[in-house]
Structure formats: structure tokens, C-alpha cells
Design brief:
- The complex is a heterotrimer of chains A (184), B (742) and C (239).
- By secondary structure, chain A is α+β, with helices and mostly antiparallel strands.
- Chain A has six helices and nine strands, in the order βαββαββαββααβαβ.
- Chain A has a three-stranded mixed sheet with strand order 8-1-9, covered by helices on one side.
- With 742 residues, chain B is α/β, with parallel strands linked by helices.
- Chain B has 25 helices and 28 strands.
- In chain B, the strands form seven sheets. Chain B has a seven-stranded mixed sheet with strand order 6-5-18-17-16-7-8, covered by helices on one side. A six-stranded mixed beta barrel of chain B has the order 23-27-24-26-25-28.
- The longest helix of chain B is centred in the N-terminal third of the chain and has 19 residues, at 135-153.
- Chain C has 239 residues and is mainly alpha-helical.
- Helices cover 69% and strands 1% of the residues of chain C.
- Chain C is built from ten helices and one strand, in the order H-H-H-H-H-H-E-H-H-H-H.
- Chain C is globular and about 50 Å long.
- Classes of the chains: A alpha+beta (184), B alpha/beta (742), C mainly alpha (239).
- The A-C interface holds A 35-36, 116 and C 108-110.
- Strand 1 of chain B pairs antiparallel with strand 1 (129-131) of chain C.
């Protein structure tokens, strides 16, 4: 797929903007037919921490990190899960045997087991939407713009601009997975 | 089970099969009329070449109804199933985005529990026994009942209540044409204090802040991150990001408080003291905008006199915010002014001081002269409001009967379109000044929303006729005699909606799944049967909408395609008015309110002592979560996943002294009732307050354990009404909390 | 009456079960006692001697018991109203949640108009059928029963014309539908009715429906010549 050459898709999430409304999770569910009881995305609630009235509360959205060095791909016995040229970690459901090795391997707990289908699933970066020139479902609905996604190899993209402007960090850097969700 | 057929089915097999299934005159067996499927209710032979896939993939613009913000949406439909809802970028309330509820509307449409058919009660009220009837039978019954009530007791014996919605026009049309004064809105449970506080000061409650330019905002309980108002929620966060100084007063550490610059855990009721003291500091230190005050306000002198006693030191004792902080906020606010505003808030049904607190807030804005200034307070809701077309009809009958909600007798200043809902309920119970006999409820759940639920259930025993029009079988429907099912918002047309300079259309994105109708149609059918057809001069929804569209250069077909029409700006709008005139008796911003003084209420805000909880009691507070709208969404699968039940927020110290751990079941008891729910032990609330999210605790008999989730604050709330605004004092119920007996 | 006719009648009766018991409109089947009478007669006629193809005797007895109760009922109108209320509570609207939602999608995905509904709609379309405006949803039990009745009617035409191969295809189609759709949710659906209904009428009929569909599944798995019902029927005729 030549259109994927030199692209690297990634998320940039602005932690100060997230209000923990979970619209991203519901939008994703609708877009991707995620079964009730499972979710491809999450928002962690940290707090209230401290002692009344000096309190702090933060929210941390996330989803599959579409890692550079994906432990899930290494763990998959059937090559059902694989890394695309554009960085997206994809799943070929026809090859998935539901062994859940990938789930055990993922340090972010980004995957879930779909009992009905007998297969594992996760965030697909809404690749079907990207191909149609649309943004991902979560980014599309986020009221505050906390979630952004795009091609970080394109210096003109929103995500590239954000990364250039702000200090950013990733989760579990020490594990060397090279996650492609950058938190600012 | 292995699927063997779909993959192996050959074309030939299908042809052979269909030879014996299809219509073919020569092979019809005697007595078997396959071709017209007599007696088949669901299936029919498809016409030659007909599309049986359910429809192409389409995107249909419409309007959300998961709350009252009514964001424009785009519905994506595939194979006749709406699978995704997205914000319409052309709608000012959504700007192309949707909150979690907006996204979850799919599961309201496809909720298996939705009302599917007109129902009539066959058992005792409260037994949950209903049978299906035809629309004709149901409407005839309701109309006969309404006619009988009018004949025997007068039209006023019929109460009609509804929470605001797009078909409100036709609901009000029915109410007024029928001739009853008893209009039950739920406003007094929500924002009477705000509406009246601002109307009496500025002449309108339609005001808002200029978020993009503001440097300082003060909220009094308004929780935009959980009581989401999409576009305004976006504005709130944008202002925070930009570095505006945001102060949130709230006894609870809401998400808005968490994102604000400062959280001030004010004592319930003490908010009035806080704002009185703010005004005191601003006047005393001469931080007010003298030019603006002189030119545009009246009553400053009287305020100055009256405010002397409300020092920050005095206020500290009443609101639990330090005098130092009060002074700091006052100075900060005034310094940032005019790019500063004190938000009018929304739900202000808190204490008997709430109305005056709203007056004090309105006055605070006036003192710093932020009216129509960048970053200040702006008129909202479109000036020179757009005139939609109307269908000519006769004038309404004159109504001489008095209202049951004691407006204006005991509440001389409450506007008729707000009313005092809890008084209305009490009058139904008491039978005075006369006995109500019927209640028609539309898109409202008074059996849950009215404080002191036991009283409401007792009151309805006096009624001969209770009719509910709704989309889900809620508690109010449960106690009704007739239930008329409305199509969900994704399946119906509604009267047009105006947002900014645009006219928006709500239209079906899929055909109704069940035997339901739109409100527009229901009111017309009812109106006709009650003999009021001259007030319902439209045959169908299209005709109604065409009439509304008449002043505009757009066809209904075009509107259906695009979803909205932008009305070209009139050239008058370019002309700026010479000098602002306010819709008050004096034409100025009324710091001293003439109507208030005329009736004998405090003309400038004054402090009143409020009851405080005993040593072992708490203030009971209630509020919102982002995932639910009142009591209407708890059955929505996608939303219930996040918040399947409500919890009682209780401070760590208060909990531990009662042996309560996080997740324990606790009993909350007031003078009027008690409920049980799980505790959430947290630092994020005043130790003398407890808080629960309204909307859970559906109690209709026949409850299956899966849905007996949470508890209802209305079971515990005492009815306490403010004489001035009719506003409910929902935060003045004192409760004890104890670990529930196992 | 032969077995095939009986099956056609049973599907018709089962579909009628899911309309309000007091609804006798538009050429519909009778409900209440009349329905039971027809059911009983139909089942008795087509049940042979062999235990393999009978309904369980205790179930037959329960149905007879229901019918007796109807015949002896002095307040039939009142009973029908009570049954109508129960029908509504089980299948239409209840507070706060339906007891036995009659939609396959509900049992797969907890909603209506799920994948099962779309699949059913495609299946019907393949055979030239569409769901009427105002009809029930494609995966509603009534619609599914109507579809099976429709297939059996086709099977009857094929049988009348001696087209054994065509009849076999139709039986294959019926079996697939029962296997891939009906049996996916019917046991749970019937189970909810049996556990929660206040009315013996619905409890017994739920049990009957479950049993009947299992019988169908077993019988359709045999080629038509070896259909145990046919075998027994022929035996009975010989006697």
C-alpha cells in the first residue's frame, strides 16, 4: 500500500483537556460495533487526591498504543496481529484463534476477548475512517479536543505541531514498547 | 452451530425453492394463498425489484434529544439501521461533536424496553397490568375522559404537564385551547431562581458569558463538565486552557471544580453570603464601574446602604469561605472586569436563599459593568428572534379559574410559564382550591422528579384520569391509566428548532420501529377528538412544517436534505442600538427591583438565616453525571455501562465515624422518607454534606433485581418552596446516614 | 390431517400466540381457548404411536388441562383481559423492563435490530419476502414463526406435486433457519416465560414451543422419506 509509505499514525492526548465524559468510548463503540461489556478505549480517573479541600483530580484517556515494538505481535502464534507500514497494529480476524496470548503480552491491557466471535479485538485506529479521509471516531467526537490523532511524519499535521510545541511523555517507557500515544 | 447453508447454497437451489414459495397462478394449491400471505402479520411478498435490504447507506441530519441542549447531529444509517450519531458541524450547540449521551442515542432507539404500543391499564393503579389497545381506542378514551372532566368539573380540573421539548408548542396549544390554567412545568425544581433573579435585574434570563475573551469566571454550582451543555462545555475548557481564572463554588468537588483554578467548598445556602460580601467589597473599595452604574442601573444607593453589614468577616461565618479569599476574589474579579462574568448558573433549586443569591450574582455583573463587553456578560439566544410561520387559528378561550399552583396568589411574581410544580402536586393532594381530576403528562417523569415521592403517589389517588405520553415505560407511565407511545427522537418529525441564525429540522433517521407517533401527530389527534380541531389546522407533520417554513426561502424537501437553513441576516441587525434599554419597569438594570418591593419582598438582596444540620445530620445534595439525563437514560445500555447505579458521596471522616467503608450499603433518612444505596467515600465533599446523582431508584412494582439499582433522592426530599420564586429548596433537606442493616 | 399440514397449523398457532390474546382482528387466528383447542387437536392428530415423535405425554396433559380450564371458565372475558395484560408484560412493555423480549437480537446483543434482525431480513428477501410496514421486526418470534409457516406451505405445494427434491430443499432451508436462528435464542426465551409468567397458559405454551422446535430440528435432520412422522403415519394408515 504505497499510500502508507512514510506515514506513521499516532495519538496525541492533552491530559489537561480531558473531562472524563467518556464520549470517546461511546463513539468508538458505535463506530466499531464493540460489544457491551468491553471497550477499545478507556479513561482512567486519578483522584480526588489530597485532603479536603486541597484536592486534585486528573483524567487519562487511552487505547491501544500501536507500539513501535509491539509485544502482542511477537506473542501471536498465527500472525493474526501484525504491524502495518503506517504504524497501526492491525488484527486479521480470520487468523485469530482466540488464544489470548496477545492479551497477556500487552502491558497496557488494551485488548479484549469477544466471546461471541471467539476472537480478540482492540482499537483499529479507525483505519476504515482514515482511508475515507475522516478522523478517528474518538477524536471526532471529543468535545474539548483532548484527543488528537494523525500522521507524525507529516510536519503539517495537528499531532506533529502539538509534539513540536509541548513536552510529551508516554506510558511504560521502560518497557521499550515504543507506544504511539503521546501525552501532553 | 456450524453454518452450512449460506456458503453452500447454490443459485439453482434458490430458484427451485422459490418456485414453490412464490406467487404463480398456475401452481397455487387449493386453499393455500401463498401469494398474498393471508393471515400473515409481519411478512408479505416483496414487490418485483423492491429493495429489501432496508435501505442504502445514508447520512441524515437531525437533532439530538438526549438532553435539552439539542445539538444538531448527523445520523449514519446502514442497511436501515442507525449505527452512529455524530455532531453536525453546522449546529452552534455541537460544533460537530457529541457528548456521551448524544453518542449513545443509538441505544435509546434500539432499547428493547421502549414503549411500542398504546397501552391501557387493566389492573389497579400501581399493579403494572396493561393491555395493548389501538390508537383509536386509546385516543378516544383519553378524549372522552378529558371532555367529561371539562363538562363536570371545568377545564381547570385537567392538569397538563410537560418538560420543555420541541413539540412544546403543540402541547401548550392543547393546554390553552382546552382552557386549563394548570400548566405543570418542572421549572421550579430547576431554575426558577435563576430565571427570576436575572429577569428582575436585567429584564431577561437569556444571558451568558463571552467565553473566548474572558479573564475571570465565577460559577455557583454550575457544573458544565457533568451537567454537560456541549458547546458551553467546550467554551469552559477553552477558557480554562487559555488561562482564565475560574472560580467554582460547590459543596462538592465536581469535575468542573477539579478543572477550575479554584474550588471553594461553600456551605449550602452560604453562597448568598459570599456574593453579598463580594458586592460589599466591590462597593466599599470602589472597584465598581461608576460610569456604567450611573448610566445603566438604578438602585445603587439603596444597595450601598443595605450591603454595609455584609462584610467578608460576617460572610465567612455563613459560607465557610475565608474573608481573605472573599476579598481576593472580589478584587480579582473587579480587576479583570469588564472581561469577567459571574455565571447565572442553571439549576438553582438549592435553598431559600437561592433566589436572592441569583439577584446578588446579577447585581455583581452589573456593578463591574460587563454588559456586552468582551469577556463579560452577553445577551444570549439570539436578538431579534426569528419568527417562524404559524398556522392561523382562533384566539384561545379566556381562562378565569385560578391556578392550582397558587400562582399568583401565594407566589405573586412567578411567571405563569414557570409555575410552582410542587404546589401543583400539593393542591392535587389537598383538593384545594378545587380538586384536580385529570393529569396529562408529556416527556416528564413527575412520579420521580417531584420531591417527596410518597406525597405524589398519594396525590394521584384523587385523579380519575392519568395519561402519559413518553418513549420509555418510566415510573409515571407505570401509574397511568393510558400510555401513548411517542416515537423516539430518531424516528420522528418535530416543530422546527432555531439556533442562532439557523433553522434546524428534526426528522426521522429510520422509520418508527413500532406503533408509535410523533408528539405533533398525537396532539393533533387528541385535539381533534376533544373538539378543538380549529386549533390544530394541519393534516400531518409535513403540512405543519411547511407552515413554519413559510417566511423563509427554502422548501421542506431542501431542509430535509440539508438539515438546516441559514436565514440571511436582516440589515437592521447591522445597526447597533444607541443605548441599551433593558426590559425592566425602569428600562435600566434594576439593582433595586421594583416588582419585588411592590409585593413586599426584599428589594435588594438580604441575608436570611437558614436551618443548619444537627450534629449527626447532613445536607442532602443532588446533581448530575455526564452520562445520564435525569431519570430518562438509566436503561440505555451504553450509558448504564459507565454509571449503572448512583452512590452516596460521603466525606472520609464522616464515613469512618459511622463505620462506613467505600461500597457499603447505607441508609439515608429524612423526615419524609428513607432510601438505601452504596456509599462512595471521598475527600471530595464537605464533611457536613452528602450527594447523590438524581435519576436512579426506579420503583415501579414488578421490578426485576437487575434494575432495582440505586436510590431516588425524591423519596427523601422535603417540599420546601421559596415564596418569591417558587423554587424548590432541594438542598435544605437534612438527613442522617448510617450503615444499612444487612 | 397429515404431519405436514399439522406443522403448518402449529406454526400458524405459534405466531398467533404472540399477538395480544384478545385481538381477533384482520382474519387472525382465534386466541385463548379456541387456540388451545386447535392446538390440541392438531397435535393429537399428528402424534403417532411411536414415542420418538410424540410430544411428551405430560406436556399433552398440561395442554389438555389448560383447555379444560378454558371450557369451564365462567368469566372468559375477564380471563382474556388478564391474559392480555400478561402478554403485554411478557412481550411488549413492562416496568421497568420486559420479561421476555421476543427478539433474537436481544439475546445476542441486548438490543433490537442487531445482527440477527439483519440476517433474518436477508434470508426472507432471498425467498421474495419483505417485512410489512407495521409488522413486527424481522427477528421477532412472530415473524420467524411466519417464515417457517411460509416455508412449510411451499413444502406442501412441492409434496402435493410429488416434487421430492424440491421438498427436500425446502426442508433443508427450514432446518438451517431453525438451527442458525430459532434454536439460538428460543430456549432462553421460553425459559424466561416459564420462570416468570404468572399464567399457566403462557408457561405451558412456552414449554410446548420449545419442545416442538426441538422435535422439528430432530425430524428435519432426517431425509423426508425417513421422516419418522411419515413412517408412523404410514404405519397407522396400514393398520
Amino acid at each position: 500500500m504505497s499510500e502508507n509509505k512514510n506515514k506513521r499514525y499516532a495519538f496525541v492526548i492533552d491530559l489537561s483537556k480531558c473531562i472524563d465524559c467518556n464520549a470517546c468510548m461511546v463513539g468508538c463503540k458505535a463506530e466499531n460495533g464493540v460489544p457491551v461489556g468491553h471497550s477499545r478505549a478507556w479513561v482512567y480517573e486519578h483522584g480526588p487526591n489530597g485532603k479536603f479541600p486541597d484536592l486534585k483530580m486528573d483524567f487519562e484517556p487511552g487505547n491501544c498504543m500501536h507500539c513501535e515494538n509491539p509485544p502482542c505481535v511477537a506473542a501471536c502464534p498465527t500472525e493474526a496481529t501484525y504491524q502495518e507500514e503506517n504504524g497501526i497494529i492491525a488484527i486479521n480476524p480470520d487468523r485469530c484463534i482466540g488464544c489470548k496470548a496477545c492479551m497477556a503480552a500487552c502491558p497496557y491491557h488494551a485488548r479484549y476477548y469477544d466471546e461471541k466471535k471467539g476472537k480478540v479485538d482492540k482499537c483499529s485506529f479507525c483505519e476504515h475512517r482514515l482511508k475515507a479521509g475522516l478522523d478517528t471516531a474518538c477524536v471526532h467526537t471529543c468535545m474539548t479536543g483532548a484527543r488528537q490523532a494523525g500522521d507524525i511524519h507529516d510536519p503539517k499535521s495537528e499531532v506533529s505541531k502539538l509534539l513540536a510545541k509541548h513536552k510529551h511523555h508516554v506510558k511504560l517507557k521502560e518497557k521499550g514498547t515504543g507506544p504511539a500515544i503521546y501525552y501532553i | 452451530m456450524k453454518s452450512r447453508r449460506y456458503e453452500n447454497e447454490t443459485f439453482q437451489k434458490g430458484v427451485t425453492r422459490r418456485r414453490f414459495l412464490g406467487a404463480s397462478a398456475g401452481t397455487i394449491a387449493a386453499g393455500v394463498m401463498v401469494s398474498n400471505l393471508t393471515g400473515f402479520r409481519s411478512l408479505a411478498m416483496a414487490e418485483e425489484g423492491a429493495d429489501t435490504s432496508g435501505g442504502k447507506n445514508v447520512e441524515i441530519p437531525s437533532i439530538c434529544e438526549m438532553c435539552v441542549w439539542r445539538c444538531g447531529l448527523i445520523a449514519k444509517v446502514r442497511d436501515g439501521v442507525a449505527y452512529k450519531l455524530e455532531g453536525n458541524p453546522e449546529h452552534p450547540n455541537s460544533r460537530g461533536r457529541l457528548c456521551p449521551k448524544g453518542n449513545a442515542g443509538i441505544m435509546t432507539l434500539y432499547d428493547p424496553d421502549r414503549l411500542k404500543s398504546p397501552l391501557m391499564r387493566v389492573g389497579e393503579r400501581g399493579s403494572g397490568q396493561f393491555k395493548q389497545v389501538s390508537w383509536d381506542e386509546a385516543l378516544d378514551y383519553v378524549a372522552e375522559g378529558m371532555k367529561k372532566i371539562k363538562e363536570q368539573h371545568g377545564a381547570e380540573a385537567m392538569v397538563m404537564s410537560s418538560t420543555h421539548n420541541l413539540a412544546q408548542l403543540q402541547f401548550e396549544n392543547l393546554l390553552q385551547a382546552y382552557g386549563t390554567p394548570n400548566y405543570g412545568t418542572q421549572r421550579s425544581l430547576c431554575f426558577n431562581a435563576m430565571v427570576m433573579g436575572f429577569t428582575m435585574t436585567y429584564g431577561t434570563e437569556a444571558v451568558g458569558g463571552d467565553y473566548p475573551n474572558t479573564k475571570y469566571i465565577i460559577y455557583n454550582g454550575r457544573n458544565l463538565l457533568e451537567g454537560i451543555a456541549n458547546s458551553e462545555t467546550q467554551d469552559f475548557m477553552a477558557a480554562v486552557e487559555r488561562g482564565a481564572h475560574v472560580v467554582v463554588l460547590d459543596p462538592r468537588y465536581s469535575k468542573s471544580a477539579a478543572k477550575a483554578s479554584e474550588w471553594l467548598p461553600v456551605r449550602p445556602g452560604g453562597d448568598l453570603a459570599f456574593f453579598l460580601a463580594l458586592n460589599h467589597v466591590i462597593i466599599k473599595e470602589k472597584l465598581y464601574n461608576k460610569k456604567f452604574v450611573d448610566e445603566y442601573t438604578q438602585g445603587f444607593d439603596e444597595l450601598e446602604k443595605g450591603i454595609k453589614e455584609y462584610t467578608p468577616e460576617w460572610a465567612e461565618k455563613e459560607c465557610d469561605i475565608s474573608a481573605k479569599k472573599i476579598v481576593q476574589v472580589a478584587r480579582g474579579f473587579a480587576k479583570a472586569a469588564p472581561a469577567a462574568f459571574a455565571h447565572p448558573n442553571w439549576r438553582t433549586s438549592n435553598t431559600l436563599n437561592s433566589f436572592q443569591a441569583e439577584r446578588a450574582i446579577a447585581i455583581l455583573n452589573a456593578l463591574v459593568g460587563n454588559w456586552k463587553q468582551p469577556g463579560g456578560l452577553m445577551p444570549a439566544g439570539g436578538e431579534g428572534g426569528m419568527e417562524l410561520g404559524v398556522i392561523p387559528q382562533p384566539p384561545y378561550p379566556r381562562i378565569s379559574a385560578m391556578r392550582l399552583d397558587a400562582v399568583p396568589m401565594r407566589y405573586p411574581l412567578v411567571p405563569l410559564n414557570l409555575g410552582v410544580f410542587q404546589e401543583l402536586r400539593d393542591a392535587i393532594l389537598r383538593g384545594k382550591p378545587y380538586q384536580a381530576k385529570g393529569w396529562l403528562i408529556y416527556r416528564q417523569n413527575p412520579m420521580m422528579s417531584l420531591c417527596d415521592r410518597a406525597k405524589t403517589l398519594e396525590a394521584i389517588k384523587n385523579l380519575d384520569l392519568i395519561v402519559t405520553i413518553d418513549i420509555i415505560p418510566n415510573d409515571t407511565a407505570f401509574y397511568s391509566d393510558v400510555i401513548l407511545p411517542e416515537s423516539s427522537y430518531l424516528e420522528r418529525y418535530d416543530p422546527l428548532s432555531v439556533a442562532g441564525s439557523k433553522v434546524f429540522l428534526r426528522q426521522p433517521v429510520v422509520p418508527p420501529l413500532y406503533d408509535t407517533k410523533s408528539g405533533l401527530e398525537i396532539f393533533k389527534l387528541l385535539g381533534d377528538r376533544v373538539g378543538l380541531n380549529e386549533f390544530f389546522n394541519y393534516k400531518n407533520e409535513d403540512e405543519y412544517l411547511n407552515a413554519q417554513l413559510k417566511p423563509f426561502k427554502v422548501t421542506l424537501d431542501d431542509l430535509k436534505k440539508k438539515g438546516y437553513y441559514e436565514v440571511p441576516a436582516r440589515h437592521e441587525e447591522g445597526k447597533k442600538p444607541e443605548k441599551d434599554v433593558f426590559q425592566t419597569p425602569s428600562g435600566k438594570i434594576e439593582i433595586v427591583s421594583a416588582p419585588l418591593s411592590q409585593v413586599g419582598f426584599d428589594a435588594v438582596p438580604k441575608w436570611k438565616d437558614l436551618p443548619k444540620p444537627e450534629a449527626n445530620q447532613f445536607y442532602l445534595l443532588s446533581g448530575k453525571v455526564a452520562h445520564h439525563t435525569q431519570s430518562s437514560t438509566q436503561n440505555n445500555q451504553w450509558l448504564a455501562e459507565f454509571v449503572p447505579e448512583n452512590h452516596l458521596w460521603i466525606h472520609t471522616a464522616s464515613a469512618s465515624s459511622r463505620g462506613i467503608k467505600d461500597g457499603d450499603m447505607v441508609t439515608v433518612e429524612s423526615k419524609v422518607g428513607k432510601v438505601t444505596l452504596k456509599a462512595k467515600v471521598t475527600e471530595g465533599i464537605r464533611p457536613d454534606c452528602v450527594w447523590m446523582n438524581f435519576g436512579f431508584g426506579h420503583k415501579a412494582k414488578g421490578l426485576s433485581t437487575a434494575y432495582g439499582k440505586g436510590a431516588l433522592d425524591s423519596d427523601v426530599h422535603e417540599s420546601i418552596s421559596d415564596r418569591v420564586s417558587g423554587s424548590q429548596a432541594l438542598s435544605q433537606t437534612m438527613v442522617t446516614v448510617s450503615k444499612a442493616a444487612v | 390431517m397429515n404431519h405436514l399440514n399439522a406443522r403448518i397449523h402449529v406454526y400458524e398457532i405459534l405466531a398467533s400466540l404472540f399477538r395480544p390474546p384478545d385481538d381477533v382482528s384482520s382474519g387472525a387466528e382465534e386466541c385463548g381457548g379456541r387456540l388451545l383447542e386447535r392446538l390440541l387437536n392438531t397435535v393429537q392428530e399428528c402424534c403417532g404411536i411411536s414415542a420418538r415423535c410424540c410430544l411428551r405425554p405430560d406436556l399433552m396433559e398440561e395442554i389438555r388441562g389448560l383447555l379444560r380450564a378454558f371450557e369451564e371458565d365462567e368469566d372468559q372475558a375477564g380471563t382474556l383481559t388478564r391474559l392480555a395484560a400478561e402478554h403485554t408484560r411478557l412481550f411488549v412493555n413492562a416496568f421497568p423492563t420486559l420479561v421476555a423480549p421476543p427478539y433474537e437480537s436481544f439475546y445476542q446483543e441486548g438490543r433490537v435490530m442487531g445482527k440477527a434482525a439483519l440476517d433474518c431480513r436477508s434470508i426472507y428477501a432471498e425467498d421474495g419476502l419483505t417485512v410489512r410496514e407495521g409488522g413486527e421486526l424481522p427477528d421477532h418470534i412472530l415473524t420467524q414463526m411466519e417464515y417457517l409457516r411460509f416455508l412449510c406451505l411451499g413444502e406442501k405445494r412441492a409434496a402435493d406435486e410429488g416434487e421430492t427434491e424440491a421438498r427436500g430443499l425446502l426442508r433443508e432451508r427450514e432446518l438451517s433457519f431453525i438451527e442458525e436462528h430459532i434454536l439460538n435464542w428460543l430456549p432462553e426465551f421460553c425459559g424466561r416465560i416459564q420462570s416468570n409468567s404468572h399464567e399457566p397458559y403462557y408457561r405451558v405454551l412456552a414449554r410446548f414451543m420449545k419442545n416442538f422446535m426441538v422435535l422439528e430440528y430432530r425430524n428435519l435432520n432426517h431425509p423426508v422419506e425417513l421422516d419418522p412422522f411419515e413412517e408412523v403415519f404410514n404405519e397407522v394408515k396400514k393398520v
